[in-house]
Structures are given as structure tokens and as C-alpha cells.
Amino acid sequence: SLQMPHFLARLAWARAALGDRQGASQALDEAMARAAPADRKMFEERRELLQVEADMNAGDTQRAAKGLAGVLAERRARGDIVFLPSRPDLAARFANLALEHGIETAYVRMLIDRHRLVAPDDACAQWPFRLRVRALGGFDLTRDGEPMRFTGKTQQRPLDVLKLVVSLGGKDVDAELVMAGLWPDADGAAAKNSFDSAMFRLRKLLDIEDAIVVASGKVSLARSLVWTDVWALDAALDATSDAPPALAARRLLAAYPGRLLGSEESPWLAKPRDALHARVVRALMDVGQKLERAGDFESAIDVYRRALEADNLAESL
């Protein structure tokens, strides 16, 4: 009987993770009905966090931030260092919201470090990444909060490897694609040697252990250490189908400050740049059409106008 309320509370988290909010609420109601008075506060807090999750999913970030601030203040005051171990994905979203709104910043950073939380794709600028890679509208790197500057020609090829890996998604990128893109005229062995040399120099250049990993012929950036705005754009694109159209448009336009790698021109860049740009234009067209169908013509016009700023040659726009 002492364990059953805690089981029901875990069941509530599981149901909420599947999108069954009514089932989650019912499980929490039963947990609170069975719980000893000393434990009821814990279950009330879980209900508040489930409401914060619902507000975040609905796009009401101000209400979500207000609810989260109250919960985190109480947890910090009582020295609670355990944070949603059964929902690390949700814990990371809460931590991101807190950092974005300046809520219990030191406490939240401690929770991120203690639980090794992996940042969500749309992580805010305050998330404690070791390395930030900006590739939309230009290219720059920030390590531990400080901009990285490069002047030597010998650094160009390692940076090209990083740029191409980011351009191709930054996760499980086939090393053969990288070799074919950067050393198209080299035979297999020579291309492999060039790739290995450039990767070795890139790791020394970044000077962050395990920031970039090569395993089973695939290249990946470590999401717990590295952020890139291409991932943030991917998250905004994925959210367009579920979010309210006006909110989806704002997120998408904010996440796309310019074309991949700005004014840089390289043969290997054309295909990923065009593919990403086409996805953005299609998504903005879809959002605009949803706004039209809803009769919100003013917002639709604004979406099309701002989309034209990104691509003034798109006839459909």
C-alpha cells in the first residue's frame, strides 16, 4: 500500500508521455487518494509539472514558465537534486524553458550536469553547450562561451569537414559522403587518408573531447556537448504540422536567418543548401495556406512576405 501511490505516479508520467493526458490525470488522482499526507505534496507537484508540459505543448510559454518557476523554487529550497529520472526528455525541455526565462539558473545547470541531460533540438542560447556551431546565414563557432577565430589556411580543410557534417544533418553522416564531397578526385585510400588527417586536426582544433565521433563509418556530433542552428531549424520544421499556424510561422522564420553557410560557395555545398532551403519554403507555403483557410489573411500575407525575404525568386510565394 505504501508503494502503490508511487507506482500510479509513474504510470501517470508514462501515460502523459504517450499523449494520454486524461489517463495521466486519473492515475495521479488515484495516487493522491491513496497517498499518505506527507506524500501528497509530491504528487501535487507532479500534477503542476504535467500542466507545465501541457502549456508548453500548446505554445503558452509564459504560463508554462510561471508554473515551472514555482516548482523549481520549492525544489531548490528543499535541496532536491533528483529531477524526473523516468522522463529525461521532458526534464531537458523543462530545463531549457527555465534557462530561456532566467528561472533558477544555477540550480537548473546543476540538474543538467548531474543528470547528463541531452538538450532538445531547439535548445536556447543559455543551454551549457561546450560548442555552438552557427551555419545558417554564415558560419561561426563558440567554445565555452567564447568565439573561436581562425586565420591559417591549414585550418580550412578540418573546418570544411565540420561544415559538411553539419550541412548533412550532424548525425550518422556517412563518412564516404564526406570524402566524396571534399576529395572527389582522390581514390579510396587517398581520400580515406585525407579524411583521417582532417578529422585528427579538427579534433585538435575544437579541443573538446568526444565532441565529434566517428563510429562504423558514420560521423556524428555529440548532442550533449554540441549545438547547431541546423538542428534548431529541423525542430521548427518538424513542429509546423502540430503547432498553431501563426506560432509555427514565427518559430520557423526565427530559426532560418539565412541560407546554409551564407555567401560561401563550394561544389559540395549546393545540394544540402538547396534541399534545406526547399524544405523551408514548402513549410512556409503550408503554414500560409493554413492561415488562409482559417481566414487570417493578414498573417498569411506577412508569412509570404517574410518568406520572400528568404527567397525572392520563389514564384509560388
Work out the helix count.
13
Q: What do the pLDDT scores average to?
A: 88
How do the strands of the widest beta sheet line up side by side? 3-2-1-7
User: Any idea what the shape is?
Assistant: globular
Structural class comes to alpha+beta
Secondary structure: helix percent: 55-70%
Described by strand count, sense and barrel closure, the largest sheet is: 4 strands, mixed
Q: H/E series, N to C? A: HHHHHHEEEHEHHEEEHHHH
Amino-to-carboxy terminus distance? 62 Å
Radius of gyration: 23 Å
What is the number of strand segments?
Answer: 7
Residue stretches low in confidence (pLDDT < 50, at least 5 long) are: none
| Beta-strand percent range | 5-15%
Structure commentary:
The chain is α+β, with helices and mostly antiparallel strands and 317 residues long. The protein contains 13 helices and 7 strands. It has helices at 4-17, 21-34, 37-57, 61-77, 88-100, 105-115, 156-167, 175-182, 188-206, 229-239, 245-255, 270-293, 297-310; strands at residues 131-134, 140-143, 146-147, 173-174, 212-215, 218-221, 226-228. Helix 1 (4-17) packs antiparallel against helix 2 (21-34), helix 7 (156-167) packs across helix 9 (188-206) and helix 11 packs antiparallel against helix 12 (270-293). The radius of gyration is 23 Å and the shape is globular. It starts with a helix and ends in a 7-residue tail after the last helix. The mean pLDDT is 88.
